[in-house]
Task: structure prediction
Amino acid sequence: MLFTLLWLTAAQAQSFNCLDCDDLVADLDGLLTESPDTSCVPASGHQGIATLAIQQTPESARYSPELLAFMRAITYTEGAEGPDGYFTEVGGRVYPSGTDVHPGAADVHRYSRTGHDSDAYGKYQMLSSTWAEWAGKAGVPTARGGTNSYGERYYDMSPIHQDQAALGFLQREGLEQVLQSRGVDAALATWQARQWASVPGASQPNDRTGRFRSVYQALLAEERGYRDGGGDCGAAVARPAEAAEPEPEPEPEVADAEPASGEPDLATPAPDPTVPLDVPYAYQYDNAVDAADSATATSVSMMLAHYGAEVSPDHITKSWGAGATQSPAGFADMFNHYAELHGLDERLVARLDGTIADLEAQLERGDPVPVHAYTTPSGGVLVATGHTGSGWTVNDPTGRWNQRFKGAYPRWGDRSGHGVTYGSGPFRRAVATWDGRTPAPIWWHEVVRTGG
Result:
């Protein structure tokens, strides 16, 4: 993935030196219209399928209704949809609600003792090895020190932590974006969804598998109702702004302030406009090879085409694999390999300490700017081609972004990412913050030349 996802509590966020935080927070009204009122989310809903523990906390706003509905549908086909699902082992044994570690981590022989050749446990029926991996990546704390004989740590398996681990896995792997842009059938076709053997198309269907799609649709309507303050609750909760045809956002009015050394200045005045560069466009979902993971290969291809080298995204992916360009260093390596092969003078240098001024300067020199951005939960990459007084023009290989931090691409098959202009506020939040408000260095690529 392009970025390591950071989960920050409010207290942690306050520990950062946030530039003009009050103004930036006010400018987030288009992202979260108000603080979540978790009283609006009941304990259970359609067919008695329980809502998730995390939905009783403000953290639920990090997850889309599509992802929450999908996870609840998984608990249905896995047979853990009730409130005691968090403590249910494969085969139906329910552990005490105070159980704080995975039974298979506490007893490494549990796998053979359940009678199912499995130690799957919890709301998402995770094997102890799967739990150890996902919990570690989600930053779940440990409930006790040490490790078992397999080297697995004893991560705290309280309900909210189970939610964080499973939801975090699907966000990191991009399944949330697939759900939002392509729908449930496309999501079910991925290997990520088939981590659960009971979903349609996976290896162990059961008598509930055939109802997965209809259950998902009912739960999705329910989740959207919670976000919109509908249903029986009546109280509004945090909800994303409307995604349809977003207008460029005006730059927030901020007080004059000097940014701390090394921090990107989110409050700089709007730059003088530049004429957008004519960079050839490619749409990642036109690719035949690993299309869903080809955004960076597609952007590399666009950059090469701009300087006169025709190298298809499919060729890049076939030659180097889908993961080769999923980092700033990998992006630069791929471009430089083909630039040298085709006799180009241009090279890319991956920069991890950039500012908005760096992007402006490169555009003013006449070179496009590849820039890594939180356009989706797992990150994305854009090729900036120009800027105006109120926005940035880019070639977006994934189509037209909905301009939400860690947002989505609502229109599947939409090739309108060619020369699209995004508002200055959304653009800066995506490229120059970790969490939509806390300033962070920009990951971008400087164009340098090797000869005369």
About this structure: The domain at 32-227 is CATH 1.10.530.10 (Lysozyme). Residues 1-39, 230-270 have pLDDT under 50 and may be disordered. The chain is about 30% helix and 10% strand.
